[in-house]
Specification:
alpha+beta, 5-stranded antiparallel sheet, 9 helices, about 40% helix
């Protein structure tokens, strides 16, 4: 039997908890965030250049191929966020300082280890090894993402919902920005709305399924719940 999604809803401005369906899981489950970490990785990167994507990616013997449509030319950062391009993030992660990245992750609320090789650093940047978040911790990290002044980051996350893996996260009448994530441990969505004037963060984790088809639809229901609560005020 599949467990119900763990849903956390926070106010962007003051971080107050507007909804938490399962506090024990929200605070006690610590797992790899997968691609939901990419906005946090983005903010840690020393540069956001272009990189080729051949779609095939192997790190330390693990296949992490991209699943997005093929790019005709080198991938820019905004498109990498929108499409969740593993090849781009793995390429950019080579320039991360491992100790500094660990500290950034710790300050973001994660449990993070020091990456002792380039390969481990790349896996950490992709949210697959050496980093764990609880749903509450990731929701709090996304309040900082929502308040970022980085226009490219925010456009990329808005496009991830408009055209990427997070398309099922937006209810009618509400613009949403965010990312999905899928690992062997579960499925994630984390994001905020309205996309260009953030007021609420939603984070969803479920132990089974995929970010795009399981976590994102659950997030849409949470965003719709917030819409209704705003109307009823």
């Amino acid at each position: 039997m599949t467990a119900r999604p763990c849903v956390v809803v926070l106010d962007v401005q003051d971080g107050s908890v507007l909804r938490c369906d399962d506090p024990a899981r929200a605070n006690g489950v610590w797992v790899a965030p997968g691609s939901a970490i990419k906005p946090i990785t983005w903010m840690a990167l020393p540069k956001h250049g272009t990189a080729p994507c051949r779609k095939r990616l192997e790190i330390a013997g693990r296949r992490l191929d991209c699943t997005h449509a093929e790019f005709i030319r080198a991938v820019d950062g905004e498109s990498a966020l929108a499409a969740s391009c593993n090849c781009w993030f793995a390429a950019m992660a080579r320039d991360l300082d491992a100790a500094r990245f660990q500290q950034i992750l710790l300050r973001a609320g994660a449990k993070a280890s020091f990456a002792e090789s380039v390969e481990l650093l790349q896996m950490q940047a992709l949210g697959l090894e050496g980093v764990r978040f609880s749903p509450m911790a990731l929701a709090r990290a996304y309040t900082k993402v929502a308040l970022s002044s980085d226009a490219t980051l925010r456009r990329g996350l808005e496009r991830a919902v408009l055209e990427g893996t997070a398309q099922w996260a937006a209810p009618d009448g509400l613009s949403v920005a965010g990312k999905t994530g899928t690992t062997n441990e579960g499925a994630w969505f984390a994001g905020y709305a309205p996309a260009r004037a953030p007021r609420v963060v939603v984070c969803v984790f479920t132990e089974q399924g995929r970010g795009s088809s399981d976590a994102a639809p659950a997030a849409r229901k949470a965003f719709a719940w917030w819409q209704r609560s705003e109307v009823s005020r």
